[in-house]
Design a protein that fits this description.
With about 375 residues, the chain is an alpha/beta fold. The protein has 14 helices and 19 strands. A seven-stranded mixed β-sheet has the order 6-5-14-15-16-13-17, sandwiched between helices. It has a six-stranded mixed β-sheet with strand order 8-2-1-12-19-18. A three-stranded antiparallel β-sheet has the order 3-7-4. Helix 1 runs parallel beside helix 10, helix 8 packs across helix 9 and helix 10 runs antiparallel to helix 11.
Length: about 375
């Protein structure tokens, strides 16, 4: 007897083994499905930077049985300090009440989170060094051609291949997705924690410069940035020395700041928004759908939540009705993610200021900016159903 496409489970391809793709793969694996996962890199890449994972993303790990391990490998962020361009701390926020209500924001390295998600994926094979070169939609399936020349039919293709998704380019016109740039960027690198408070994020907002210090377990991540053109032109060592030397107060006391260029990562602060999240049986997930600048640090959390929402809809469908499930996923989650993206953009506009007078005015206003105002958009998202 032939398999009935009305009841058969979807044959699923996940393109990209990043946070979004691995979260979806782990959730599908948990209910006995075996999606095909391909990744363009030759191995899982440790991008060498930290993440602040919010409860709306981290709670997905409860369902995967990984939350206890996650808490062991991360540290709680209970305080947030903002400094000015002189190196003076001008505002201190306690996040303890927020943590009590929703759960703490946890600092974790990108590599640790990916390793944790791989535990959820288990023995599901990942085809490394593989890309999608062509998509050929048919009536109720998509023929996918891979970079090794092979072709396979799938009922569903999930594009989770990041901010500059090649899969997205195959299904959307250029007018259907847009990039948005802050014009700022900078270098991310590791420091020894030293005497840093491990429960505190510290950021210095200066005119034309930014310094952020973000603890994770056993390490301290630093970001030093400003207008992208200047940062790239000066290069890693000169730019970092230039920014640190511009502060009147010591912002990295007792630390040797000589990052290895092989470990440092240049982060260009731009994002992308797709006008639609699916075409036929191909759907966008994570940064491929709606990317984030890292101002609010919410991108990874929304990627995991999106994966959970998509997995939920797919759990209640069959191969024939995949497109209906994808429509429901987009209807329930796209506006929510775009709202979080807009909040990140607005925060970026407030943080990344070149003018000294405008930076001074902003810093004066920060003195009256309450913790409730600081987390309002995040609290709104946390209080809403998905």
């Amino acid at each position: 007897m032939q398999s009935n496409s009305n009841t058969r489970r979807p044959r699923t391809l996940i393109v990209g083994a990043g946070i979004a793709g691995l979260t979806l793969a782990a959730l599908m694996r948990q209910r006995g499905e075996e999606p095909v996962v391909v990744e363009r890199e030759s191995a899982i890449a440790d991008k060498g930077y930290m993440l602040g994972l919010y409860p709306m993303g981290a709670r997905v790990l409860h369902g995967l049985g990984l939350h206890d391990q996650y808490m062991e490998r991360s540290i709680s962020m209970l305080h947030y300090h903002i400094g000015n361009g002189k190196g003076e701390i001008i505002r201190e926020y306690s996040l303890e009440d927020i943590a009590e209500r929703y759960g703490a924001i946890q600092g974790i390295s990108h590599g640790e989170l990916v390793a944790l998600l791989l535990e959820g994926v288990g023995d599901l094979p990942i085809r490394f060094g593989t890309t999608v070169t062509a998509l050929h939609p048919h009536d109720e399936e998509v023929e996918v051609t891979f970079s090794d020349g092979s072709s396979t039919d799938f009922d569903l293709v999930v594009a989770a291949d990041g901010l500059h998704s090649a899969t997205r380019q195959m299904i959307l016109d250029e007018k259907e997705y847009t990039y948005w740039s802050t014009g700022w960027g900078g270098w991310v690198f590791w420091l020894e924690p030293g005497a840093a408070r491990l429960d505190t994020w510290v950021e210095y907002w200066g005119a034309g410069k930014f310094l952020g210090l973000y603890p994770v377990k056993d390490h301290l991540a630093a970001f030093i940035g400003g207008p992208t053109a200047t940062a790239k032109e000066m290069g890693l060592e000169k730019y970092i020395a230039h920014v640190i030397g511009s502060f009147e107060q010591p912002v990295l006391p007792g630390r040797q700041v000589q990052p290895d260029s092989s470990d440092a990562y240049f982060w260009d602060f731009h994002d992308c928004r797709s006008a639609v999240w699916r075409k036929g049986r191909v759907v966008l997930l994570g940064d491929a759908a709606t990317g984030f600048i890292p101002t609010a640090g919410v991108g990874a959390s929304m990627a995991m939540e999106s994966a959970a929402a998509l997995s939920d809809e797919l759990s209640r469908t069959d191969a024939k009705r995949v497109e209906q499930a994808l429509d429901l996923y987009e209807k329930r989650h796209r506006k929510r993610v775009e709202s979080a993206q807009e909040s990140s953009r607005q925060l970026g506009k407030m943080m990344f200021i070149k003018s000294s007078p405008l930076a001074w005015e902003r810093n004066q206003l920060l003195k009256f900016y309450t913790v409730e105002e600081l987390v309002r958009s995040i609290a709104k998202i946390a209080d809403e159903p998905i």
